[in-house]
Amino acid sequence: MSEEPGNSGGESTLTVLLAGGVNLAIAVMKLVAGIISGSGAMLSEAAHSVADTITEILLLTALKRSARPADRRHPFGYGKERYFWSLLAAVSIFASGSMFALYEGVSTILGHGEAQSTSVLSYIVLGVAFALESISWLQAVRQVVRESKAENRSLWTYLRLIDDPTPKTVLFEDSAALVGLLLAFGGVGLHQLTGSEVWDGAASIAIGLLLACVAYLLGRTNRGLLVGRQADPILVRGVRDHLSAAPEIEAVVDLQTMLMGTDQVLVCARVDFDDSLGAADLERACVRLAGELVEQFHDVTEVFIEPVPRSDPELRAAVLARYGDIAERWNSAAQ
């Protein structure tokens, strides 16, 4: 997490714009093919692409609104707006994509759907859509792979700890889109081979379940970020080590961090200073240490340092309740 803040903002915007343009074009093609053929799977895929297009609009809103500077009403800035709009994007995937696909699939299986006819247009649209989605997917993959390598992390670890939901959302929805296209191809093909609409309906249901899973995973990620997740563990350890090494500090009693937005971390440290320090020395030490943390860890944007005695029983109990055995090890190392 040592990148300069904002470095990934331009690439995130490019990723979202590319995905949005691709999804809009694909949605129109799928809708035309679905209406002509009456295929439930094609109509479900059209709804899928519409949901993805809405998602990109919400993500662009997230990128723009979260970049606003801090003001009197929001002194810590608007970074969490990115998480809010990304959460709405996850809800959009479920509401406008998954629910429609499930409804269309059940209606087709029960024989309540429109009469279907096999059309070569469906295969053409699915093939073109797969090619276009692959372009958007490759851009999302390139971004997350490049950023994970920059942090010396595996791709899965990076996706789990990422504080920018935008590339993760695009990657997940594009991956789901490619799988959905294969499901739709299978449904249309099996319907043509067997003459049974059950296969088409089953493909629609599978697409709906796929979208529901993606919506859940993205919703869970953004929920954690909105609630106020701790910063990257590597950053937390680095901040603790830096404070512990300061000559004025005898022990880091408590350290709390929270993601305030993408590349924005709030640090609150309670430390036991050397008792021989005067008030002026204490003030200068706090100012110097805060500046060093912001300079060394570019994601750190706000630092609060509070002098406390390490022997305070209430504070010790609160730290132990929050961190458990880890706090015990910290305390032992400080003594």
Automatic annotation (TrEMBL):
Q: Does the keyword Hydrolase apply?
A: no
Q: Which Pfam families match?
A: Cation_efflux
Which InterPro entries has this protein been placed in?
Cation_efflux, Cation_efflux_CTD_sf, Cation_efflux_TM, Cation_efflux_TMD_sf, SLC30A9
Its topology with respect to the membrane?
A: Multi-pass membrane protein
Q: What is its main location?
A: membrane
Q: What keywords were assigned to this record?
A: Membrane, Transmembrane, Transmembrane helix, Transport
Q: Enumerate the spans annotated as Cation efflux protein transmembrane domain.
A: 17-226
Q: Where do the TM regions start and end? A: 12-33, 83-103, 123-141, 170-190, 202-219
Zinc is among the record's keywords = no
Annotated localization? Membrane
Please name the PANTHER family in this protein's record: HUEL-CATION TRANSPORTER, PROTON-COUPLED ZINC ANTIPORTER SLC30A9, MITOCHONDRIAL
The name of this protein is Cation diffusion facilitator family transporter
- Annotated source species: Amycolatopsis melonis
**Upper taxonomic lineage:** Bacteria, Bacillati, Actinomycetota, Actinomycetes, Pseudonocardiales
